[in-house]
Amino acid sequence: METIDDVGEFGLIARVQARLPLTSPDTPVPAGDDAALLNAPDGRLAVSTDLLLEGNHFRRDWSSPRDIGHKAAAQNFSDIVAMGGVPTSLLLSMVLPGDLPVAWVEEFAEGVAGECAGLGAIVAGGDMVRGELITISVTVLGTLEGRAPVLRSGARPGDTVAVAGRLGWSAAGLELLLSGEKTGVEAGDGAEQASGGAAQAGPSGSVGSVAVPAEAGSAGSVVVPLESGSAARSVARPGAGPAESAAPQPADYLSAHRRPSPPYAAGPQAARAGATAMLDVSDGLLADLTHLAVASGVAVDVDSALAVTAPGPRLDLVLTGGEDHALVATFAPGAGLPEGWRPIGTVHEGSAAVTVDGKAWDGAVGWSHFGHSE
Ligand SMILES: Nc1ncnc2c1ncn2[C@@H]1O[C@H](COP(=O)(O)OP(=O)(O)O)[C@@H](O)[C@H]1O
Ligand SMILES: Cc1ncc(C[n+]2csc(CCOP(=O)(O)OP(=O)(O)O)c2C)c(N)n1
Ligand SMILES: [Mg+2]
What we know:
This protein has helices at 4-17, 65-81, 102-117, 169-183, 205-208, 250-258, 266-272, 285-296, 304-307, 315-320, and strands at residues 46-53, 86-96, 122-130, 135-143, 160-164, 277-280, 299-302, 327-331, 342-348, 354-356. It is α+β, with helices and mostly antiparallel strands. Helix 3 links the parallel strand 2 and strand 3 (122-130). It is globular. Thiamine diphosphate (TPP) binds at residues 50, 55-59, 75, 174, 207, 210, 282-283, 322-323, 367, 369. It comes from Catenulispora pinistramenti.
């Protein structure tokens, strides 16, 4: 098996670049020189960055390299969309073990390319360094197309809180993978096993701290035992939610965890519709709404009956599960919600706090990398 030590740094860059979209009309100088040169169509650039660490954000025995490529790009694109913008390019840096098969990195690059394709985004450069754990750093750039950014700080009392995209699906998939881990049940559902082997590496303490409150299981549980080898059923992509009436299967939750489907079009749509505040749900709805409540100086109440879609994940997963990259936004009363958005709560005057059905949530509100889960 050909490893990346066999082809060397520049051989690997060539193999990866061959699979990436590198040029666009807004790329006067593509990757390959000391720096790329990009046009900023409306004179501003939206910029954001996120790291993915093996063992912490993904596992090679849980996800294919293609899935991980899709996820690394998607979780970054989602931050641009959550400002009301459109992603245009990304920078892709990787720490890679020398004995990793070249095929793993090529497939990962194809995943990144696949996620870029839907948006017409390009890869403007990156870096590669040897290290023990696969670490992926993505920096994304985007355009607001002349619009004002939708910040976390604009929510006002009386606004409606609305969501586009899925809540709790990725967390339901993670729960299945973790339970398979505990019971020894085979977690594979057709995701191509990484040709790099099934090495589970990295800090696992964070895995144990995933937000699954003790009362999990109370509200209309749909999570069913993992069936080994169940066929992966692909579920409709963005805007998923109320329209998805067929009961999601375990394989659907696993796919949602491995390859999130952020509702990309919904961000610019919300901006055009005058959303007062917006952010993406990476850590958990209650955790991320708390950021919005703090930034806006308001109280937010979530109506659990509206947040949960039946059939779908349990209430605790909907409220505290991260990584689906749904969008949450606030809209002035009477503004009307754009297509694909559904109401889940209201903004009130009060201290920067989030309640569920008028009461404080008793348990973790989402994922946190440091300390205890939030
Ligand atoms: N090392 C850092 N240096 C400067 N800013 C940072 C650093 N880490 C995080 N931030 C900023 O803090 C804010 C919150 O980070 P994070 O919770 O990771 O946001 P998100 O969920 O949108 O990825 C972001 O604006 C991010 O850019
Ligand atoms: C192996 C593994 N364990 C646990 C998780 C769960 N998990 C890891 S990071 C995270 C939250 C989102 O990641 P973060 O780096 O906080 O993204 P950001 O908020 O910066 O966008 C979650 C729920 C996972 N995806 N994979
Ligand atoms: Mg971040």
